[in-house]
Design brief:
This protein folds into two domains: 2-299 and 557-566, 3-Layer(aba) Sandwich (Rossmann fold); 308-552, Rossmann fold. It has helices at residues 34-48, 135-138, 149-170, 187-194, 211-217, 235-241, 248-255, 262-268, 278-287, 308-317, 336-358, 388-395, 412-428, 442-451, 469-475, 488-491, 511-532, 534-549, 554-566, and strands spanning 14-18, 53-58, 66-69, 75-78, 89-99, 102-114, 120-127, 174-180, 218-221, 232-234, 259-261, 272-275, 294-295, 367-372, 399-404, 433-437, 454-457, 479-483, 498-501. The chain has a nine-stranded mixed sheet, sandwiched between helices. The protein is α/β, with parallel strands linked by helices and 568 residues long. It binds pyridoxal-5'-phosphate. Pyridoxal-5'-phosphate binds at residues 33-34, 37, 373, 440-442, 445, 467-469, 472.
Length: 568
């Protein structure tokens, strides 16, 4: 049908970028958090830089979920249905995979990411909601991170195995397969099958599997030191569901003897493996000894994560910044007063939104601290409430707090965190104003990260592999106040680009020390600088732009993937 639209993309070999979730914009809710937004930023930078890429993901027609929160802070999850035909074009082609001994047909939709300067990257969205499929199989591509292990394995079969087959069917020639996290690792098995050596009699059956060839084609990025973030499937499940491709003993050789570990499978069949920050590389190296793990620190897409008002300011003083964020090195050209004025305009927009949404009555001039990210235990959204009395003594009348974030539907402690913030808010009786905004998504993220004065991050070390929201904040001159973990170890210069919380990077997190340091700095450094030393504050805002946005952007990141992973 519409495959002619693909013609310009299938002439030259491409990098195939596989990701379970991709976050391009709020209206396409096929992402849950940092991993998906990073994937979107990766693709956008590839388009800007004319990197020949094609991305593959699942359609997830019912999205992740839309979040409502009741008066007590209980999260309510509503399917976030969207209409693919509003944004995507169906491609006529079909491929199939076998799941539970049934043939499952897979269709494809096309979205083309277009750079403002002309480059394009196609994204292929895989869809099993097709009439000839068994009722159960039609739901495989409905929910992002929904269902049980069996559901997840089926999704990963469609993504990894179905994805490789679909690229082939559409006529793509692929020179590298980049697995963004282990969800797509099954693609390695499909490649093993495809490049099986044609030898009739071999003394060792394993010789028919050309692992070296597959390795040369594959790049693997690991994204989290959190154990639960690495998918593992029991071989009973694998045997029941995944009934083809290659023999079980070969799968075990690469994916682990006890369970099918998707990270291990990716590691064993990739020639280049990386973590997403320097510290994360070290942590991953300890988790997976014997593999050579590199580091490419994450970045964010500058144009996407700069508020319109700041875009206009940068356009005036630093033309070309969006496609060459290194130009931020000349941030000194912009007068401090103009940075502050634009910041205040953006802040007013946010405060007006918060007041409309929640009625908490925040004001424009109070130091406003933001905390928005997935609500999950290690992120410790409530660390600042360790000693509420002390926080009141320090912050009453001087700070206000804006929160947002979804908890995964099965993350009970994550949901408890949201309730806890509502309880503290109740306790405070408005002495420190707190707002929890519902349904955190990309457009709300841009509003919050750009509109607060300070971006707070208090993860438990070493679980923040990178983190990216603080980089977004810096693109808008917002100052980071954060635990030394992930990217912040590389971006932090105390009192110059922002402030740290707690001890040095290699010590385990001590919640008492962390909260104590947080209160101390808030009281003796951050609050006084904000209210009494505007000059120093705006100087730091400019440092954030000139030293953080300058480096922590996805253009720099993609240039590194090209030179270090893709063309090796
Ligand atoms: C950037 C972003 C994230 C990632 O935030 P971290 O603080 O780095 O975990 C999550 N969700 C949304 C909607 C984002 O835009």
């Amino acid at each position: 049908m519409e495959t002619t639209m693909l013609e310009s993309f299938i002439k030259d070999p491409r990098i195939a970028y596989f990701s379970m979730e991709i976050g391009l914009r709020s209206e396409i809710p096929t992402y849950s958090g940092g991993l998906g937004v990073l994937a979107g930023d990766t693709i956008k930078s590839a388009a800007d830089l004319n990197i020949p890429m094609v991305a593959v993901t699942l359609l997830t027609k019912k999205g992740y979920f839309r979040q409502e929160i009741d008066a007590e802070g209980n999260q309510i999850e509503i399917p976030d249905e969207w209409h693919p035909s509003d944004f995507l074009t169906p491609l006529g082609k079909r491929v199939s995979v076998f799941i539970e001994e049934r043939e499952v047909k897979i269709g494809a939709w096309l979205y083309i990411v277009e750079s403002i300067i002309g480059g394009k990257v196609p994204i292929i969205y895989l869809d099993t909601d097709i009439e000839d499929n068994h009722e159960e199989d039609r739901g495989i591509t409905h929910f992002l991170y929904g269902g049980d292990d069996a559901y997840r394995l089926k999704q990963e079969i469609v993504l990894g195995i179905g994805g490789v087959r679909m690229l082939d069917e559409l006529g793509f020639e692929i020179k590298k397969y980049h697995m963004n996290e282990g969800h797509s690792s099954l693609l390695t098995l499909e490649l093993l099958r495809r490049y099986k050596r044609d030898i009739e009699e071999v003394w060792d059956e394993r010789l028919v599997w050309d692992a070296e060839r597959v390795r040369r084609l594959c790049v693997f990025t690991t994204h989290t030191p959190v154990e639960a973030g690495h998918d593992k499937f029991s071989y009973d499940l694998v045997k029941r569901i995944m009934c083809e491709v290659i023999p079980l003993d070969v799968i075990k050789e690469f994916g682990g003897q006890e369970t099918l570990n998707m990270t291990l499978l990716g590691l064993n069949l990739s020639h280049y493996i990386n973590g997403v920050a320097k510290r994360h590389q070290e942590v991953s190296q300890d988790m997976f000894p014997g593999y050579e793990i590199h580091a490419i620190t994450n970045g964010v897409h500058s144009y996407t994560w700069t508020h319109d008002r700041f875009k206009r300011l940068y356009d005036r003083y630093l033309p070309g910044w969006a496609n060459e964020p290194e130009i931020f090195v000349r941030i000194g050209k912009i007068p401090s007063e103009e940075i502050w004025d634009v910041h205040m305009e953006v802040k007013k927009e946010l405060i007006d939104y918060v007041n409309r949404e929640t009625g908490v009555g925040m004001d424009y001039d109070t130091l406003t601290i933001g905390f928005a990210r997935r609500a999950t235990s290690y992120k410790r959204a409530d660390l600042i409430f360790t000693d509420v009395e002390r926080l009141l003594r320090i912050g009453e009348g001087k700070i206000q707090l804006i929160y947002a974030g979804k908890a995964h539907p099965k993350d009970t402690p994550g949901k408890e965190l949201i309730r806890r913030i509502f309880q503290v808010k109740e306790m405070m009786q408005g002495r420190i104003k707190i707002a929890y905004l519902k349904n955190y998504n990309m457009s709300l993220a841009l509003q919050i990260i750009a509109g607060v004065d300070v971006w707070l991050n208090t993860p438990q070390r070493p679980y923040e592999a990178s983190g990216t929201s603080g980089m977004k904040a810096a693109h808008n001159g917002v100052l980071n106040f954060s635990v030394l973990d992930g990217w912040w170890i590389e971006g932090h210069i105390e009192g110059i680009t922002g402030w740290s919380i707690g001890g040095p990077p290699h010590e385990p997190s001590d919640p008492i020390q962390d909260s104590d340091d947080l209160y101390n700095k808030l009281e003796t450094v951050i609050i006084p600088t904000f209210y009494e030393n505007r000059h120093q504050w705006t100087k730091m805002m400019k440092n954030a732009i000139g030293m953080i946005a300058y480096y922590f952007n996805s253009h720099r990141m993609m240039r590194r993937y090209v030179t270090e992973a893709y063309i090796r």
